[in-house]
Design a protein that fits this description.
Layout lengths: L2 H31 L6 H22 L5 H7 L3 H14 L1 H4 L16 E2 L5 H10 L10 H19 L13 E2 L4
Antiparallel strand pairs: 1-2
Helix pairs in contact: 3-7, 4-7, 6-7
The protein binds heme C.
């Protein structure tokens, strides 16, 4: 066996070795130098931060809601109009254009409530949602002020029994 034939036998492997080296250096550069992707520890820290933010949202939910203030807001036409606008923008697909209910969400214009029709209960339903039952938590997305005006609007449409509304669900809370 001469030197030339030995070299030609090793050649196919050296290609892989170089390719492996290039790949290793490339990965090292990509992860450690460019920081294009999180390293495992940074990814873990990001997850923890996201979880903490979520927990603080949950903690904020337990802030007491003022029943009297919400009831007064329902008498303020500007607040009610703002609430109607927010309702039109966010709630119609599941609760119908007038809150009369749709295949997904219950009728909000009758006197029957799954989670309570009092000002504070309505505020909490909208703010916290019932995620496993298909009702999103709107507090984190819309903010406290919009949840208040939405509640004010809902207080003006309850017990109205909009025509063609979805059949009642839950407990009767008022009416003849
Ligand atoms: C993706 C569909 C969906 C959207 C959008 C939605 N809801 Fe709901 N909502 C539901 C469902 C489903 C329920 C019933 C939850 C249950 O069965 O416990 C519900 C329940 C409620 C209740 C409680 C009703 C009761 O009988 O106690 C209120 C109040 C309410 N939604 C208000 C709103 C408002 C205000 C918006 C817009 C900001 C909104 N929802 C948007 C699906 C939705």
């Amino acid at each position: 066996m001469n030197a030339a034939s030995a070299e030609s036998r090793t050649k196919p492997y050296t290609g892989y070795v170089y390719a492996g080296l290039v790949l290793a250096v490339g990965c090292w550069f990509y992860l450690h130098v460019t920081s294009a992707r999180d390293l495992p520890m940074a990814a873990y820290e990001r997850e923890v931060a996201a979880q903490n933010a979520h927990d603080s949202i949950l903690a904020r939910r337990s802030v007491p809601v003022d029943e009297a203030a919400l009831t007064a807001l329902a008498l303020d036409p500007r607040a009610v109009a703002a609430g109607r606008e927010a309702f039109r923008a966010n709630c119609v697909p599941c609760h119908g254009a007038e809150g009369e209910g749709a295949p997904v969400g219950p009728n909000l214009t009758d006197e029957y409530w799954l989670h309570g029709g009092g000002a504070e209960r309505v505020y909490r339903s909208v703010n916290d949602g019932f995620i496993v039952r298909g009702m999103p938590a709107w507090g984190p997305t819309l903010g406290a002020r919009r949840i208040q005006t939405l509640t004010a609007y809902l207080l003006t449409i309850r017990n109205r029994r909009v025509a063609g509304g979805r059949s009642p669900q839950g407990t009767r809370e008022s009416g003849p």
